[in-house]
Write a structure and sequence with these properties.
Structural class: alpha+beta
Strand content: 15-25%
Shape: globular
Radius of gyration: 14 Å
Number of helices: 4
CATH class: Alpha Beta
Helix content: 40-55%
Largest sheet: 4 strands, mixed
CATH architecture: 2-Layer Sandwich
Order of helices and strands: HEEEHHEH
Number of domains: 1
Number of strands: 4
Length: 120
């Protein structure tokens, strides 16, 4: 009997399935958004390892910003994940927005990561 998925889980599975079909061996830039913070990871699905990670709770971002749940915080995390990705020789990724709409904080993070040098 198949497992029944609900709303956000179904959307996340649909996005992830499309990414795996079109990733061409590139690492995945996965984004998680909570009410208070935002997190990003570059994941190599072939080996199951996290290559780089950044979040709004990193010390230098936390000190510079008043709140970790703003678009400015997301942009800072995007720049930081781009720097860390390029430091481990990852220039091209596929963007995994999960179950979130490409809007607001998710879009701010993606735009800042592109400006920082990541291609997706």
């Amino acid at each position: 009997m198949p497992i029944s998925l609900k709303g956000a889980e179904r959307r996340k599975a649909r996005v992830r399935k499309a990414l795996k079909a079109n990733n061409a061996g590139r690492p995945r830039l996965s984004v998680f958004r909570s009410d208070k913070n935002i997190y990003a990871q570059i994941i190599d699905d072939a080996t199951g390892r996290t290559l780089a990670a950044a979040s709004s709770i990193d010390k230098n971002i936390r000190e510079a910003l008043k709140n970790g749940s703003t678009s400015e915080a997301a942009a800072s995390v995007g720049k930081l994940i781009a720097e860390r990705g390029l430091a481990v020789n990852v220039g091209q990724v596929v963007f995994d927005r999960g179950s979130y709409l490409y809007h607001g904080r998710i879009k701010a993070l993606a735009d800042a990561a592109r400006e920082g040098g990541l291609q997706f």
